[in-house]
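Exercise 7. Predict the joint structure of the components listed below.
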Amino acid sequence: MTRQKRSHHRLKRAVAPYLYLSPSLLIIGLLMLLPMVTVIGYSFQNSAVLRRDPSFAGLKHYQAIFADPVFWASLWHTLYFTCMSVVFHMTIGMVFALMLNSDRINPTLRNILRVLYILPWLFTAVIIAVIWRLLLEPNGVVNSVLMQMGIIGSKVEWFSSPATALHAVTFANIWAGYPLFMVSLLAGLQGIPRDFYEAADIDGAKAYQKLIFITIPQLMPIIISISLLDFIWTMQVFPLIWITTGGGPIYSTEVLSTYTYKLAFSSYNLSQASASAVVILLISLGLTLLYIRCQKAR
Amino acid sequence: MMFRIQPAMLKIVAAAWLLGATGAMADTTLEFTQWWEPELPAGSLRAIMNDFEAANPGIKVTLVSGPYATTRDQISVGAATGTLSDVVGLDGAWVNNLNAQNALADMNPMMDASGFDKTQVADIIKVDGKAVMFPVASFVYPVFVNMDLAAQAGVTKLPSTRAEFLEAAKKMTHADKNQYGWVLPLSLQTPSGVQNDLMSWVWASGQSMMADGKPALEGKPVVDMLTFVKSLNDAGVISPGIATKTEQEKVEEFVNDRVGMMIDSLAHVNLIRERNPKLNFDLIPVPVVENYNGKRGLPYASWGIGISAASKHQEEAWKLVQYLMSEKVNAKLVSLANAFPGNVNAKPDFVTSDKAFAKAFEIYKTGYLANEFTGLPVAEDLMTKFDVEAQKMLAGEQSPEQAAANAQKGWMAKF
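Solution:
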């Protein structure tokens, strides 16, 4: 083989992987990178999208949203909504997974519970929003039951009162999202070798000690991965909040996604909406990097 | 092998090409974007377009139809990119923004050149002196009264003033039976309740929320309206869940005998009848302040029409606008839509055949159309800002005066 042929062959070998990757890279570039870069570009323009000749705005739109108290309220609501959702998704998911994995429950009952517990996962966000709006409306079932039980004295406007609205939407989201944890943890539980528990039994370990020293450490990689993914997804929840409260009453359930939507489609301020979207992107990016680091560590 | 073209064949191809080319040049195709087609009986708008095409040989119309929200977004983007359709369906709330983008043509020169009779149209929406929109069909918002609930409550005379309305609402309210006198939807998801259910009280009494083209929310009319609404809320006559209630839920509560009175679009009459055929209801104008005897402003939403400034076929587009605004065609269109006409001489057929519509038409004729959000910048954003302040007031966080002052501050930033 001549030197020229060898170098040609080497070049082909070096290029081949990129050629195989090129369709995916092209799709990622067109569907993800291009819109992202475009939105970042809009955030530095005046009258983005609305004018054919937008001028450069520098950091003006970022300054405007950081000076807006509603933005900070939205950020706080987003953090509350997300943290509470992830913590309760994890807790409820763990309890239900342990229940479904337990030999002490009758297998038929276990199968029925398995179907019942997974039900919220089958509904779309719109259906979940409508269900909870009907249940929690002032004349709804929840108020009626709570009044009959003597827990509340008068009708509570769960979604319409600034004091309860954020808790109510968070509750609806917790109900909708725990099955992801439950299913993942159940799979993890079924993968823990029984030898560990038998050894613990021989050592006289109690149930809570087995949970703390065997089950949770064994499930930790799943807990961390799913928690981070859930945090990223929950932070971007839009339809549930939009349909139940629209961000109200009085901004009490305004989160970053509804704040951005209103800037774009109510105020038609697409430049500021882009700046807000970039902030969400940066937070999500930080969490994604954390997730990748955790995955690498595993 | 050589491929030989027969001279006769060549001639035929050339003739066909010439015919096609001249045909293509003769036909102008207008694009007409609107949200009306899905809201009208299937095929009816297309049939009107077919009639137009028959009356105007050489002009074809392509309908670009979609739901309201999609059409709004499509028009915003089209205006920005210079790809707006030749003729566009418009909501009054959009025209200020579109005009700021120089997206709408001024129809004044077209009216002058064609000798268009301006007195035949109910309204011409102008921004900066430019005639940018005609309301083709108007959906008015009277007060719907559940006559059975009114009779049970002993309301024999339907309210004409705000004080009478409060009394009637009090009588119709039985919270223990989930029955309330009035319903107020102030969801931030669709803040149109500010326009239809709050400001309508101001316009009904011939008052205004504006002064010299600027917001005047701290003025007596708006503060009085907020004080009145607060008094209704304090009296417990408004159905609970105000801050998240949507227009759809408002109608549902009325249909299900849970509220005695609501301000709503006449377009919902058929829907109400379908949902509850036994419901006995009547229509009245929005009550006014004490001792007001002038003409009553009637809140309305409209299907407007305008021409794109970027259209290369403005002459043909104007022909289509004229056609839709003409007496007979307008009457036909609004009869299909259960709306009131944009041409003052047009008489829709439902006003003679239907008692409720006949009553509404009477209210319409004795009053005037009023919607001050038409032509305002970012109208929906203004409604959202007012909505938040009204919600704070109803939650007891501020007085009507403070709500008006805060809303004024928010609005001024947009002007």
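Discussion. The two ends of chain B are 76 Å apart (CA to CA).
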